[in-house]
Specification:
Blueprint lengths: L3 H13 L5 E5 L5 H8 L3 E6 L2 H14 L4 E4 L12 E7 L8 H14 E12 L1 H13 L13 H10 L2 E9 L7 H10 L2 H13 L8 E8 L3
Parallel strand pairs: 1-2, 1-4, 2-3, 4-5
Antiparallel strand pairs: 5-7, 6-7
Bound molecules: S-adenosylmethionine.
C-alpha cells in the first residue's frame, strides 16, 4: 500500500515525466518507488550499490508479478549509453557521498544518460535532518542511521548547473523527506514489516514540520 507521502510525490512525478521513456531510480534501495511508478504506467529501472537491497527488490517484484528491472550498480558510473533515459529520480542518495566530486559525477552521469528533454528529480534532506542522523550514528555507535553530508539548496543548484542540467524548480519543502528514518531504522532492525508500514503511514499523516525539511530540484537536460 502506498503511503500518503508516496502518493503525493508520485502524483508530482506524473506531472513531470512523460510515459514514453524509461525512468531510472538511482539509489532505489528495495525498489518501492519503481513499483509505485510502474503501477502508474511507467517503465522503470532501479539501481542500487547494495546487493541485499536489489535482492529484496527482486523478491518483492516476483511476489507481485511486477516488471521493473533492478541492477546492482553505482550511480556515479551508470551502465547506460548516452541519451537513453526518459527520466531519473534520486531520492535521498547523493548526501550519503563523502566527496563532492562523487556528487558531481552522479549528476553528470544522470545528465549523460538522459535523452534531450529528459527530466531528473533530486531530493535532499535539510541541515537538521543531516545533523539528526549524525547524532543518531554517534549515539548508537554507527548502528542506526547513515552518513549524511549536508548540501545546501544553493550548492546543489550550482552543482546541477555545473553539469549543465537546467534547473526548472528548486524548492524547500517541509517534512516529507526523512520523516521517520531513525525510528524506521530501529523497527527495520528489530521489528516487523507490518509495524514498519503502519509507522510510516502514521508519520506521513502528521503535519509536515520545518525541522524535518528538505530541498527538491526538478531539472531538465537541454541540448548543449
Ligand atoms: C536513504 S536510501 C534512499 C532509498 C530510496 N531512494 C528511497 O527514497 O526510499 C539511500 C540509498 O542510496 C543507495 N546508494 C548510496 N550510494 C550509492 C551509489 N553510489 N550508487 C547507487 N546507490 C547508492 C544506498 O544503498 C541506499 O539504498
Amino acid at each position: 500500500m502506498d503511503s500518503p507521502v508516496r502518493k503525493r510525490l508520485t502524483n508530482i512525478f506524473q506531472e513531470f515525466f512523460g510515459k514514453d521513456g524509461l525512468i531510472l531510480d538511482g539509489g532505489c534501495s528495495e525498489g518501492e518507488w519503481c513499483y509505485s511508478l510502474e503501477k502508474r504506467g511507467y517503465r522503470t529501472i532501479g539501481i542500487d550499490i547494495v546487493p541485499g537491497a536489489i535482492k529484496h527488490a527482486h523478491s518483492i517484484g516476483r511476489q507481485n508479478g511486477a516488471e521493473s528491472v533492478f541492477l546492482i550498480g553505482d550511480v556515479t558510473r551508470l551502465p547506460f549509453r548516452e541519451n537513453v533515459l526518459g527520466g531519473y529520480i534520486s531520492l535521498g542518495v547523493v548526501e550519503h557521498f563523502r566527496f563532492r566530486e562523487d556528487v558531481t559525477r552522479a549528476l553528470a552521469d544522470a545528465k549523460r544518460s538522459l535523452a534531450p528533454g529528459g527530466r531528473a528529480f533530486f531530493a535532499l534532506p535539510g541541515l537538521l535532518v543531516c545533523l539528526r542522523n549524525s547524532l543518531s550514528l554517534l549515539m548508537t555507535g554507527d548502528k542506526v542511521g547513515m552518513y549524511h553530508k549536508y548540501i545546501s539548496k544553493s550548492s546543489m543548484e550550482r552543482l546541477l548547473r555545473s553539469v549543465s542540467l537546467r534547473v526548472l524548480i528548486s524548492r524547500h519543502e517541509k517534512g516529507w523527506l526523512g520523516l521517520s528514518n531513525i525510528v524506521d531504522g530501529i523497527i527495520k532492525k528489530f521489528g516487523s514489516n507490518g509495524l514498519r508500514e503502519r509507522l510510516i503511514i502514521f508519520w506521513s499523516n502528521r503535519r509536515p514540520v520545518w525541522f524535518l525539511s528538505g530541498n527538491y530540484f526538478w531539472t531538465e537536460k537541454v541540448l548543449d
